[in-house]
Each structure stands twice: as structure tokens, then as C-alpha cells.
Amino acid sequence: MEKAQRGTKLLLEAIGEDPERGALAETWQRRVPDVLKTLSEGQRTEEKPVLRTFEADNEELVIKTGIPIYSLCEHHLLPFHGVAHIAYKPDGEVVGLSKLSRYVRWKARQLTMQEELTHEIATGLQEELGASSVLVELSATHLCEAMRGIETPTETTTRSTAGEPSEQDRQQFRTAIQRHD
Questions:
Q1: Is the pTM above the cut of 0.90?
Q2: Within the chain, which residue ranges are assigned CATH 3.30.1130.10?
């Protein structure tokens, strides 16, 4: 907490602000350190949600679309946000559906690149669930592009697969994403 406070105070001074100015005092003392703690939860394993599984009678594809993501670009420390879509092929067990959203939120709360985040979600879920395959698609707008650089908001889509999904599973996932859009 003390390092976050000192760092925030120094950043405010670096841009010519007075950190002791009334409106900024709580910014460096409490608000920014609290935000950094929340937005870095994905770096702490003790914050990882428990992915309790339940026995399943079938091994049909499970698809969850439209999971909101909010993360931080490790190159610019600016947010990127969008949606994640997940499909997994259970191997005798399924996870509670809300846990998929919680897992994505936990993974996203770290400094990362979208490409790496997409891969980490796919491989992490496969490992956690013992799924035979996992497909992940993540579409996001990066504020480092929208607010600086080219100053144009665009959407970037990344995909990652863990395991060997069938062509039928891939098509079913694609159809579900199209229905969501």
C-alpha cells in the first residue's frame, strides 16, 4: 500500500499536479492503491475462484458467451475491455456456470497482453476442469489505441484452443458466438 501511495504521488507530481490539493489527496492516499489491488487480483493465486465441479451424464459441449472482461495492457498500463466466449468439452464433470465468468474476471485482473490472456484462460480452464478441449475467443477495445497512438477505437479478436476439439465443436462454438453478436 505504501509503495502504491508513493508511486501515485510521484506520478501526480510528474504531470505537474499538487498531490496535496484537496481533490487529489484521497486519490494517491486511498483510491489508486485500492484500484491497483483490485486490478491485480489475477496475480494472486489466493484470489482464484474455486471451480467446484459436478458429475455429468454426458460430454456435450458447454458454451458460455458474452463474459465481460476488463484488463490492463502491460505495455501502457491502460485498460482494455470487451467480451470473452468460452466452450469446453467436459470429461465426466461440469463446473457451475457462474464460475466460468469468475475465472475469466480473475485471469483478466493482471498486467497482460490480450493474446496471452486468451491463451491463459484456455489452458487454465483445461487444467482446472480436466476438460478434453477448451475454446476461447476474446474481443476487446484497447484504450492505449483509442486514447493515444492512433487515437482510434478498434476491436481486436484473439482465439486460443487447448486440446483437440472436433470440427463439429468448433462450428457449434462459432454459431453460439454469432448468435450472441
A1: yes
A2: 53-180
